[in-house]
Amino acid sequence: MKRALYFFLFLFFPCMLSAQDYTLVWSDEFDYNGLPDTDYWNYEVGYVRNNELQYYTEARIENAHVENGYLTIEVKKDHWSNHTYTSASIITKGKKEFIYGRFEIRAKINIQEGSWPAFWSLGTNIGEVGWPACGEVDIMEYYRGKTLMNVFYGNEWNTSTDKVDSTWAQEFHVWRMDWDENSIKLYQDDVLFTTEDITNNELFHKPIYLIVNQAIGGTSGGSIENTQCPVKLIVDYVRVYKKIP
What is the domain-level CATH number for residue 147? Predict the structure, then answer.
């Protein structure tokens, strides 16, 4: 139902949903029930990075499920298979990969101490060149009381932050990346936070894949002494647009 309504609005009122020079090329509206759609999403598995405390599981509905039009990714303190904390990190690698366009998520993030949700991208060439030579863009991440929008390459960051207040625990917000041959621009609720000139930066002229995950603790998430599980990231949609030639 949500997908049908969206496409009706997009057809008749495109200015409400995207700038007139963009067209929708892919989305997951999460208008189904069960696990994330396997046509779109793979999983990271294990203790992947940053000394985070959660074990990422594969196709475990307790950690990633779709219901009532929303994707929920949650950290659980359930001691599953001898792992104290479990969560999910879903990725489009090998399923949906992109070069240039507008990338958007509408989500409600958990803002308690220790929470570290993110919507971000890596170059599909990571297996050949490694990280960070593949390039990283954090379209949205949150930890320690602020959201961050980052472009990262080599040892250099272009970072913008915004402090959040208690109302964020009940609200949905929209983050997006506009990426073309000249620049990467990162927005939060239609407010431009970061612009990176990539004209001569070869890292950001190659295909990427998308990642949606919920972590806790680790190098940036910080202390989980007061963290109450489950810690949930709730996603309304993920959308990708292309510029109209």
Answer: 2.60.120.200
